[in-house]
Amino acid sequence: MFGLLNINKPAGWTSRDVVNRVQRIVRPVKTGHAGTLDPLATGVLIVPVGRATRLTEYIHTVSKTYVAKFELGKTSDTEDSEGDVKLHEVDHIPENRVVERVVAGFLGKQQQRPPVYSALRVNGKRAYQLARQGEQVELAPREIDIFQITVRHYEYPELIVEVECSSGTYIRSLGRDIGELLNTGAVMTALERTAIGSWTVAEAVAPDFDTPQDVNDSLLNPVPLLGNYEQLVLNEQQQGELMHGRRISLQDSDAEEVLGISQDGELLTVLNRVEQSDFFKPVKNFFPS
Known about the structure:
Blueprint: E1 2-9, H1 15-26, E2 42-50, H2 56-59, E3 64-72, E4 74-76, E5 85-87, H3 96-104, E6 108-112, E7 121-122, E8 125-126, H4 127-132, E9 142-155, E10 158-165, H5 171-182, E11 186-196, E12 199-200, H6 212-218, E13 230-233, H7 236-243, E14 248-249, E15 257-261, E16 267-273, E17 279-285
Parallel strand pairs: 2-11, 13-15
Antiparallel strand pairs: 1-2, 3-10, 3-11, 4-5, 6-9, 7-8, 9-10, 11-12, 14-17, 15-16, 16-17
């Protein structure tokens, strides 16, 4: 088996629950996931199967789109409705134009402080584990990029925002920061990941597989998802060289990393440029055995 599953994660499931469901069916074939969704969240979860698990780092570079619902006038230690929610004193209700301006201000690259209740590691331990033990947790801000952000609906206290962003963006923390600027506080009450790259939730499948054949029938070619990488159709001679781990010359490419594909559009290899030369070497091969 080789390919990616576009799964619509149900609410209440952890991302690991989904992976475990697939893993039990396809064992001993490897599985994993590319981009954690909290139990509260639903939507697109990419599950690589077989050797496609080696593509996880590349999937992480693809943009993600979310629709998030926030409730203003409240705060939470987890920044969502599953934590210790408290009322936040609000002097006045923000007008629509103010909300629109504040939300639009988050467009572009910026530093974001991750939530304390996250899976990030602090001295070898998960941040959420330390927080639950009552320890003080300080996480350094990280650079994120918001490519698009719009207000889908606002009627106090409900705010719905659509966001296309880089990997590593915490949407509940985005809501926290919006709430702070509005002086209202904000708690995320619902989240749907509607797309990863060009793969949408409308095309996603439920994780209700019963047999290995069910999984195999749902596997997708990774190449269309990885459209942010240059893709090159390899001829037979090039394929032969790469299969043996040898480098090839690609004089027409300006990229540092290239996907080598077959004439049928199947992924064969990931190539990296050798220093500042015209040569590329294979770093991950997926040639049929």
